[in-house]
Structures
1.
Amino acid sequence: MTALRTGLAALAATTALATGALACEITLRSSDTHPEGYPTVAAVEYMGDLLEERSGGRLCIEVYHSAQLGQEADTIEQTQLGVIDMNRVSLGPFNNIIEETKVFSLPFIFRSTEHMHAVVDGEIGDEVLAAFGHHNLVGLAYFDGGSRSFYNSERPIRSIEDMAGLSFRVMQSDVFVDMVDALGANATPMPFGEVYSAIQTGVIDGAENNWPSYESTGHFEVAGYYTLNQHLMVPEVLVMSQASWNRLSAEDQGLIRQAARDAVPHMRELWAAREAASEEIVRAAGVEVIEEIDKTPFIEAMAPVYERHVTSDALRDLVARIQAVE
Ligand code: BDP
């Protein structure tokens, strides 16, 4: 055992010497629910490469993909506690913790990907990232999460009436529970990793997500009706634990902020490519994609959700400013 360890250590040393790299002085552990190769995972790995290069090999990131560190709601808590250094998550599971994140999670708040980019890249995006600072977290960057649509195992949804009586899994956020209720269906908040078997065993009829997640999870195998109603465009966010952040020098904090920002354009390219690829896989598998859908009744049904969640002047102001962005 000891001999083996010594052998391995020697091997590691040779490899480091051979590549000319210094050993990482600080390795940040970063969580992601998605598998290797998914755009969010690849983007944080790319950020890690930038960081290593710019710090002369001192600062590294190790991505624990495939929910190795747990489901999102739990990993968020762990990140707040400083057990996990970095986390790439949807904004959805932050809604019940950080009020400001709700505005980007409202149904139909963004008119297009371009509108969403203009908002998150601008001062409103910065304000919402800053709100993480009051919750033991440091907001670093937004990633793309595409638009989310409903899928189920029972029947094609061609109108809002077809939603009646179906049960859908949503992310653990009251905004999404109220959204599904307002559409006449039943909402079941549940961790992402439990959805496949819940659909397969008939505990729920379906869920809602973007093309890449619908594909990578295999949900399309058990829920073969996908309706492109595109009710949500929730950005993804990369955050750091405030405790881990505080241990770094100001210079290293600057390197991390910059590397996160510089990973965003790369992430957007990866995302666009994966969206197209996932759509192709899912269609080729024979999923019935319902494209002709009048979104107006869906949009109109969301009034009570806005009423219920946009409750303060600060939130009303944010929503109005988002809508005013060209
Ligand atoms: C995916 C997000 C991921 C969420 C998941 C979900 O990328 O962060 O965990 O949806 O629905 O699109 O929970």
2.
Amino acid sequence: MPAAGRHLVQLDGATYMKKDGTWSRLDGSTIDSLLRLPQDELSRLLEEKRPEIQPRDGADIGAPIGSQEVWAAGVTYRRSLEARTDEAVSSDPYDRVYAAARPELFFKATANRVRGHGEAIFIRSDSTWDVPEPELAVVCNSRMQVVGYTIGNDVSSRSIEGENPLYVPQAKVFDGSCALGPAIALAWDYSPSDRAIELDISRDAALVYRNSTSTSAMRREIPELVAYLGRDQRFDAGCFLLTGTGIVPPSDFTLQEGDVVTIRIDGIGQLTNPVKRHPGADSY
Ligand code: DO4
Ligand code: MG
């Protein structure tokens, strides 16, 4: 469940707002319809009085996404640069992009590839070295105004990206390669500055990896990333933008089927997903 403050949450397929510990259901609104609105109309709509409602115990928490595309920024933290430099055949593209004016932005997922809190994320059937990437995700509306923040997991194959940076799309985009949630913290009620991002990975009920960073270690500003993403393209129902990882486990670590990944971001909540290996093409 989300932290204190005002949050949008998808429960049993409906959109709810949690405000100061109380819940209301946004009847007639979806993530798509909300993100089509300009920010002032969105905040006005969310301020309307609604009856309090207690969601069903054990309600299914869905990923807070409608039809949006998910994009991601890369090499925005020094730790990400170090990890790519270790794994890559050539560190040059990564060194250059870390210092360049233009950020690395890549397409990450369509909504059907995204998983919510509690759902299984996948590691690729043809990858040998896999990691979660815990990232602050920015939620933009149709005007590219930042209207919220959520937690993102940019699940990635290091073996595939390491072989050749031109393989980045295959290292990054596949079914279950992205998790989002559990809630969207509304931008006018949440500052993304200096927020702790924590990652836990458990195996057989024991913690096998834990680390943390802060959004203050990000080399880029959020408005800068959003401005580049919005150059020469429109997102009619808004979009999500992951802002890069500041945590990469050491080189001898790889995710395994059965692991459980938990990401916490201060003021947003906790996103937990079990890990499965993708069963491959024969499963379709
Ligand atoms: O350059 C490849 C991707 C980097 C990335 O996903 C990150 O820094 O989070
Ligand atoms: Mg990433």
